[in-house]
Structures are given as structure tokens and as C-alpha cells.
Amino acid sequence: MTSGKVVPLGYLSDHETKVDLLNNEAIARTIVRLINETVDSAVTIGVHGDWGAGKSSVLEMVETAFPDGGDVLCLKFSGWQFQGFEDAKIALIEGVVNGLIEKRSLATKATDEVKRILKSVDLLKVAKKGGLLAVTAFTGIPVLGLEELFGSAVELIKNTVTDKDSREAVLKQLADLKKEKADETNSRSVPTEIKEFREAYKELIKKSGIKRLIVLIDDLDRCLPQTAIETLEAIRLFVLWDKTAFIVGADEGMIEVAVRDHFKNFPEIDVSPNARETTQNYTRSYLEKLLQVPFRIPALGETETGIYVTLLLLGRSLGEDSPEFAQLLALGRSALGRPWEGKGIDRDAIKAAVGGRFDDVVDAVNLADRVSPVLAAGTKGNPRQIKRFLNALTLRLAVAQERGFGDAIEQSHLAKIMLAEMFLPQSVFDHMATMAASSEDGICPEIATIEKIAAGKPEHPKHGEDGGTDVDSTNPVIDDWKTRPEVLRWAKVKPELGAVSLKPYLFVIKDRKNYLGAAAPLSPKLMALLDRLLGGDMSAKGAVADLKANNLGEAVQLFENVRRKALDVPNFDTRPPAMAGAAAIVEAHPSLQGRYVEILEAMPADRVGLWVASGHGFVTEAGPKARLGALTEKWKKATKNSLLRSALEPKKSAKGSGKHGNV
Predict the structure, then answer these.
(1) Own/partner pairs for 535-541, CB < 8 Å, 24+ apart?
(2) Per-residue pLDDT at 261
(3) 231 and 179 within one domain
(4) Are residues 450 and 538 in the same domain?
(5) With the CA atoms of 150, 156, 159 and 161 taken in that order, what torsion angle do they form, in degrees rounded to the nearest 10?
């Protein structure tokens, strides 16, 4: 947000789209070609990919390729459509039949065939229920079970029909109906009904005059295991039928989980190296047998992510229907045609395509360049997660503007902070945020250091360079961050944040976690540890081992409590007891050395006692150590205590060469 510009609320929809920004149209075209070339045989196709990879969009493109009224009929179902049904298998079968009848107006053109197929579906329901019938007696009471039906009807007749002859006649009719229905149920079986259903279905397909029936099933991996398996079982019923094609969009892993959940007697899979070639993966085999042709949507690489993000942001700025965006889309597809070359959409080409509107989109182009490398790694190239990040960034900027934060929030800074928040390890971002939140200037000094390292600059900058915010790269936090590729990748993102106060941005992102609020109460475990830290030198020293087991966030909580105790004393002539606790925390967590020096800096320089001249040997990092040296000089100038001045003077070595300060 710069210059008071209004942030446009260009929400990026997560619904399937016919505008292909991912070059997945190639997969859709291949599926269409396969369907057209196998028109005389049945085929089942799986469109696989992770959650949010673009499966629904591929199915949408396939559906678009077969418009209504042609000789290919496309029916689309969502797995969620059958989630509430008692039997998803029957629901899908009935949905396919009813869709075929409705789309081809067969209710009047093929009366006999329609009656036969609908009767077949009803009988399949009866057979599936194993003797439970959905019939209605002449009493008008619908009952599912035979026994319940006739028992209720008999009781009703006995209680309401007073004429003896009429009552006997009605009861005899009920008994005959019960025997007839029981005989019908016992004489029918599921295999029989399936055979009759198949014959009726073939006749209906022939009468419809279509060349191919395509059934698209989406969102199957979002369903409960039972619904997913029953839907797959219904598909299996159609597998060998001519002119029928099923295309299923689902994450293979989720379906395998459903298969394992349903078929609990499957043998355990031995995945040891010596058994991989001899042990059958039953769940995988089940899916492979059912879905004959698999298409997997690959994750986006860094180059593809950059192109995708650029097109998303430019489409939002220009409008997807604009002529300028049509040219950009062509540029993007050309670049996606050779992603291995690592080239995105050329900036000059973007300028040429948008003409005089480039000033309107330059922020979008810059943002795409900056965030794409981290988004590619952090989201593993998942389009849905990429959209979620961009939507979250836009909404946070808009809320910040509505709250009057104005120029305190820069889009590029917020984007980089959110990349850290969402895609770096939680411990890394917690350190950045807690250090910034607790410092007066809102700066986390380690950020400047890791940004220099990522940029290939010297790892050991001189103290005071670039505003004096750097820390020695031998800092254990930096030592850890240097080993993490994701942190180095993030640190390379522009702009640099090493000299930027993060406090305004921590306020913007506090919808997820409030780093700036009042300190959270300590847990019982930390309260017990705090008591030990405040119990004197021996007690605090004995707590070091337990302190090392705490994470940095817990150490910071303890340190802030110890800091308040250390500074809340009537005078500083003698060492505050809480300083032993502060020293123990820093010994366990050396990255807090700077905070230890902050306690000393907060004490009145002219009223400290002799104790400040020693006992700080654990302060070894360049930044905190230099600050402690500067503080020593301040104490020497401010104190009137000659003993303290003498103690603060650097001591000569035994040979008289070199000087070593006591601190």
C-alpha cells in the first residue's frame, strides 16, 4: 500500500475455470481425443492430483468440449452429491439414468425403454435392500420392511374395521399381498437385477441415438470413505459397457485411504526393500483396475509458478475478458510450452501487451517476481494454496487501509513477512516475530544477517555496519538458519527487512497470532521453572538443563518475567537476585544475549554497584558483546565509585601485553 492508493478487492475464485492459466488444457484435449478414438468401447479415466491441483478445471474443460445437443452426452456429478444418501451406489446409478432420460427427452420418445430401465433400477434397490421393500399398502402408510408393513396394516385393520366380514376380507388381501411380495423378493437376487439393468441400459443408450455417454465425477476425494467406495462400485457396474466413459477427478492417496478403510481384511503391505517386488499393493491395484487410464496433474515448478502468479495478478488487474489480458495469456502459454528453459513472461513483452496500462499493473508484475520462488517451494506448486496466499495478502492490505494504517504498511514488506509466516518453520518465524515485538525499534537483528548471507555478502560484518543492526553470523540462530534452504530462499526475496520495523506488520497479521499483545500467562510447568530461576544462584544454575528443553518462545516468556523482576528493585548497588535467572536462560539459549544486555542498559548508569564489572562472560556474540563494551564506558564515565571505575578498567596480562576487560 503506497501513496494512499485504494487496495482493489480482486478476490481470486477457487472454483473451476474455463480460463486455463496452468496449461492443463493439454491434459483435457488429450482426454477428449482418447474418448473420441475409443468411442465403441467403454473406458474409465482417472484425473489425479493433489488437493487444489486443478482437477476440477480439467473436468470443466472436458465438459466444455462436448456441448449440449451433440452426439456425445456429458453428465457431471460431484461426489458430495451422494454424501447424504444411504446408498451412494444406487444414487449414482439412478442419477446417470435420470440424466440420460432428461437430457435426451426420452420420457416421451422411448416410453417402453424408459419404463423398463426405471423398473430395473427400482428392483435393483429392492434386491440391494435384501428383502426390504418401499411399497405402500392400500391403507396409505409407507413402510420399508415387510414385517413392519403388514404388522402395522393388520393392527390398523383390526382396530378400525368393525364389520367382521369386511375385516376378514381385507386381512386375507393383506396376507396374499405379503406372500406375493415375499415370493418376489426371495426369487430375485442382486446378480439377476444387475443383468436386467444392463440389458435395459443398453436398450436405452441405443434409443437415445448418442455416440458416447460421458460421466464426470468430481470431488470424490472429499467424500467419506463409504461414499467414495460406493461411487467407485457403481462405476464398476458400467466398466464393460459400450459407449460409456467415466472420468473421475480424485487424489489417488485419498482414494487409497478409502479403499483401506472399506476393505479392512486386506493383507498388510510389506514395504521393506526386499519385499517390494513380491508384495502386491492391493489398494493401488483396486484403483488401477477400476480406472484404466490415469492422468496426473504435475505440481508447478518455480518457473511455472511465476507465470501462474503473474497471470493471476494481471488478470485481476486488467480483467480476464480484456484484450490486453488475452495477449498476456498467449505469452504465458508460450512460456509454459518450454518451462525447462526457466523463462517466465518477459517484462518488455508485458509492456508491449498492455500498452498504456502498464502503470496500472507494474505493482502486480513486481509482486509476482518477488513472491514466486518462495511460493513455488512453500506451496509445492499447488495452485489453490497460491490463490489462498494472494487472497490473504489482498484482504489484509484492504483491512489495514480501512483501519487507517496508511503508509505504515507496504505491500512488498507485508508480502515477504507473510511468506515467512506461512512457509517457514514455525520456530523460525516465532523467533523473528518475538524478537521484533520485544525490541524498542521493532527490528529482528538476525534478519539483516541472514539476508546478507543469502545475498553472498560477508558473513561477519563489522559491528555498526548498515545501522548497527547486524549480529555476528556465529549466532546459533544464524547457524541454524544457514542450514535451512527455505530460510535462505526467503531471505533472497526483495525488499530486505533487516532494517524495517516489523511491529506494524505484526499487528496486521495478528488475526492468526498476536505477538504484540499482553504476555500470556505461564503454564504450571513454566511457573515452577520461574520459581527456580528466582531462587538464587544455585537454584538458577540447576535449572539450565531444563531450560534447554524449552523452545525459544517459552524461553522468551520466562526471560520477560525475569527481566521485570530484575528491574523492579529499590536500588542496583547489589546484584538483583533475578539476574542469576537471566544468566541461566541465556546460557541455555545464547540467542537471548542481546536481551540480557538490554536489562543492564535499562539500569541507571550512575547508580549501579561493583557487581556489574564481572559475571557477564557468557556474552560472546559480536553484537551484544560490543554493546556491553559501550555500556562499560558509559558506567565508567557516570559512576562516582572509584572502586567500580577501577574494576571496569581493562587489565594488563601477566607479561604486560594486551588488555582484557573484566566483562
Answers:
(1) 536/577, 536/580, 537/580, 539/580, 540/580, 540/581, 540/583, 540/584, 541/580, 541/584
(2) 77
(3) no
(4) no
(5) -100
CA distance 592 to 586: 6
Asked if the structure places residue 340 within a domain, the reply is yes
Residue 421 near residue 429 (C-beta atoms within 8 A): yes
pLDDT of the residue at 652: 54
Of residues 618 and 288, more confidently modeled: 618
Residue 462 covered by a domain: yes
Q: Are 487 and 572 members of one domain?
A: no
The H or E element that residue 47 is part of is strand 43-48
Instruction: Answer with the one of 465, 484, 508 that is the final residue of a domain.
Output: 508
CA distances from residue 479 to 428, 473, 570, 595 in whole angstroms, order as listed: 12, 7, 40, 19
What's the one-letter identity of residue 532?
A: R
Q: DSSP readout, 153-176?
A: HHHHHHHH---HHHHHHHHHHHHH
Q: Average pLDDT for residues 532-540, to the nearest whole number?
A: 93
Shared domain check, 392 and 501: yes
Query: Do both 144 and 250 map to the same domain?
Result: no
Strands 293-296 and 43-48: parallel
Query: Given this model, what pLDDT does residue 179 score?
Result: 63
93 and 151 together in one domain: no
Backbone angles phi, psi at 609, to 5 degrees: -95, -175
The H or E element spanning position 71 is: none
Query: What local confidence, expressed as pLDDT, does residue 574 receive?
Result: 92
Any domain includes 620: yes
| Whether residue 160 has pLDDT greater than 70 | no
Here the cell at position 419 is 511468506
pTM of the model: 0.58
Q: Tell which residue, 375, 356, 359, has the closest CA to residue 312.
A: 375
Distance CA 639, CA 486 (A): 49
Average pLDDT for residues 107-118, to the nearest whole number? 77
pLDDT tens per residue across span 444-498: 989 999 999 999 887 654 444 444 445 544 577 888 898 999 999 999 988 999 9
**What is the phi/psi pair of residue 243, to 5°?**
70, 10
Choosing from 478, 508, 538, the residue where a domain stops is 508
Contact 647, 609 (CB under 8 A): no
Which of 199-213, 527-541, 649-663 bottoms out in mean pLDDT, i.e. has the lowest? 649-663
Per the structure, the complete domain to which residue 497 belongs is given by 302-508
Number of structural domains in the chain: 4
DSSP assignment string, 392-429: HHHHHHHHHHHTT-GGG--HHHHHHHHHHHHHS-HHHH
Q: Which CATH number covers residue 55?
A: 3.40.50.300
More confident residue, 570 or 446: 446
Query: Residue 553 has which C-alpha cell?
Result: 518462545
463 and 376: one domain? yes
Asked whether residue 396 falls in the same domain as residue 499, the answer is yes
- Residue 201 predicted with pLDDT over 90: no
The answer, yes or no, to whether residue 129 has pLDDT greater than 70, is no
Closest-CA residue to 21 (of 33, 12, 11, 9): 12
- In a domain, residue 97? The reply is yes
